[in-house]
Amino acid sequence: MSVCFGGSADLDHGLLAHRVEPGIRSVTRIAESLALHHQARDNPIMQTPRNPSFGQRVGILLALLLAGLAGLLLLDPIPQDPAYHLFADTRTFFGIPNFNDVVSNAGFALVGMLGLIAVAGARRYVLFVRASDAHPYLAFFAGVALVSLGSTWYHLAPSTERLLWDRLPMSIAFMALAAAVVADRIHAQAGNGWLLLVLVLVGLASLLYWHVTERLGRGDLRFYGFVQFYPVILFPLVAWLFPRHRYVSNRYLLLIFAWYALSKVMEFLDAQVFNLLGYTVSGHTLKHLTAAVSASVVFMMLASRPRREDSRYVGADNERGVVK
């Protein structure tokens, strides 16, 4: 009898330990977590940084914009270099002077017209979630199409006076693309509406300012240079601060600027490329073609957008367009 009693006590003790030990381990883990929490709270090095708020991220961009403008004002005015008009390939074919630099503008006309047909036509219902999302792209492809006219006019008889008509449509395209990025990554209502208008007007104003200062004998390209190149600096930061997107993916944004950077290299090495290619095609002619490819990437970006995520698209915080 005593043996049975002893065996029963051991069994009860084992069952009790089996039930209690997991609870003790859970309490221990909770205590350790609380201790680590208090330690991290008291030790700034161990604290996990919070993601910046929407307002803070926009503030970063505005601060950099103001810093860039302040730095710009510290520079001396930049007049148009008359040597810019001395292109390497000045050959005349079929009665057209500077033939290659003139006809290579057909690439802009082709990309611009195809883009306008797609964005303004029936395909816009396939390409865009909302009708207003098409606004920056309408302005962009219109600017690209007009580049073909302005650049053709300029290259028929290169001069500072005619260069204005080459650069005006380019500024429209630059600013429209900037508005498209803002609309997609930051705030749809702003980028598709009032900010698009403001940016385009700022781009045009930068060129009118240059044109007036040239006529006054103290040409100043600083603000046009800012309009053209500063977005290239800011866009990677925008992509990092605002990773959610609907249209402007990082991959295509990189391709757009890679082709555009190549076009600027071709422009800078105009004569060297002409010599290297046996006086067949100049760097400036290739600049037109590679810039047109850069614009075509925008069209490919819109055409390749995955449609399966449309149901997840919301006006970010009821205004900004993002994928949740």
3D architecture notes:
With 324 residues, this protein is mainly alpha-helical. The protein is 70% helix and 2% strand. It has two domains: 2-46; 54-323, Up-down Bundle (Rhopdopsin 7-helix transmembrane proteins). A two-stranded antiparallel ribbon has the order 1-2. The protein is globular. The N and C termini lie far apart (71 Å).
Can you give me a brief rundown of this structure?
The chain is mainly α and 324 residues long. 70% of the residues lie in helices and 2% in strands.
Q: Judging by the overall fold, what is the CATH architecture of the largest domain? A: Up-down Bundle
- Oligomerization state: single chain
Mean pLDDT reading: 83
Q: State the shape.
A: globular
Q: Topology of this protein?
A:
Layout: H1 2-42, H2 54-74, H3 99-103, H4 106-120, H5 124-127, H6 135-156, H7 160-185, H8 188-192, H9 194-215, H10 222-241, H11 250-268, H12 270-276, H13 283-303, E1 313-316, E2 320-323
Antiparallel strand pairs: 1-2
